[in-house]
């Protein structure tokens, strides 16, 4: 791996951020400082933590940041479920895309763990 920008999971999560920003632009104005801000922060946190972890000098720190990114995925998923229940969300594919990112992130964690154990 050269940089975080070479990781498919990072690229996909950047695309997710842009989708979330477009999605929440249609939410009610009263959610601007509530659900909208929380969803934007959670979405941005995913690629940001992948990038920060990849830039660290230790694999232990990289793992920690990847797990923070997983937490942000769970947070965003919860917020999307709430948005759907409130009638704000009509993009069902976003759940599938979020699940794909989660799977790729878990795959990266497994790969790095296996690589570490082979040493």
TrEMBL record:
<dbReference type="InterPro" id="IPR012657">
    <property type="entry name" value="23S_rRNA-intervening_sequence"/>
</dbReference>
<protein>
    <recommendedName>
        <fullName>Four helix bundle protein</fullName>
    </recommendedName>
</protein>
<dbReference type="InterPro" id="IPR036583">
    <property type="entry name" value="23S_rRNA_IVS_sf"/>
</dbReference>
<dbReference type="Pfam" id="PF05635">
    <property type="entry name" value="23S_rRNA_IVP"/>
</dbReference>
């Amino acid at each position: 791996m050269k940089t975080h920008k070479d990781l498919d999971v990072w690229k996909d999560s950047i695309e997710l951020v842009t989708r979330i920003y477009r999605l929440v632009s249609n939410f009610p104005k009263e959610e601007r400082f509530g659900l909208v801000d929380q969803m934007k922060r959670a979405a941005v946190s995913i690629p940001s933590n992948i990038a920060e972890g990849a830039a660290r000098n230790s694999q232990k720190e990289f793992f920690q940041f990847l797990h923070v990114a997983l937490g942000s995925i769970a947070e965003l998923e919860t917020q999307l479920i709430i948005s759907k229940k409130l009638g704000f969300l009509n993009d069902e594919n976003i759940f599938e895309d979020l699940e794909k990112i989660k799977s790729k992130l878990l795959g990266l964690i497994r790969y790095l763990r296996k690589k570490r154990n082979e040493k």
